[in-house]
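Researcher: Please translate sequence to structure tokens.
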Amino acid sequence: MIRKAQLKVGGSLVLALTLVLALAPVAGAGSLTIAAASDLQFAMREIVAGFRDAHPDDSVEVIYGSSGKFSAQIANGAPFDMFFSADISYPRALEQQGLTSGPAQPYAVGRIVLWSLKPELGRLSLRELPTAAIRKFAIANPDHAPYGKRALEALEYANVWMAMAPKLVRGENIAQAAQFIDSGAADAGIVALSLVLAPGMQGRGAWTLIPDAWHAPLEQGYVITRRATGNPLAAAFAAWIDSAAAQAVMRRYGFVLPGEEAE
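Model: Translation complete:
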């Protein structure tokens, strides 16, 4: 029938059909909106790039921020399909509220470092901070950022929290805390290992790994939200996170995978 109509009306119908096909969505294309903790911004970009290679017709958008704020937003109806938190307690709380399509899944354990563009500061022990030439010291906000909570715990363990508190500048998330240091707004600070290992950050200043025993574990987890129940793209991305390719990226950025020991 279409062929006959083309013969009757000529090029006008061909043009119309061409426009309809060009404007129509690709059959089977899906979409995925992910809320991810800021410590993941470099690792996740590589992971998503690999996923897109296998799903070229699908849309994947990632928004980065603090885990505590994302958790509150999802509880209030924010349209996220997946939530990758720097603290698994947040997705577990959403699960308990019936706001997920399944249980929270651990994907990594994060680590923290003392970092400064001034190598002599970046190589210090936390116990040496009060006597060092530091005017401003950056951490993420402990009220809603898991990396900020662990920074606070480490400073308390080293018995320097009270001495450093007047010098603190708090980032909304760990990426902003790192930006304070990178811009010179802070002389040093405690940030995610995954950020100082990023391509644009390697070789800038110096950093010292903070012992895991000095703070509670940064067990990180993700969840598929109730909104994405039945979304095949969310299920596919969850499977991709467990793939050898994605896990290799996570290791390269300093994350410890579930069941593995820190080096």
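Researcher: Any highlights?
Model: The first strand starts at residue 31 and ends at 37.
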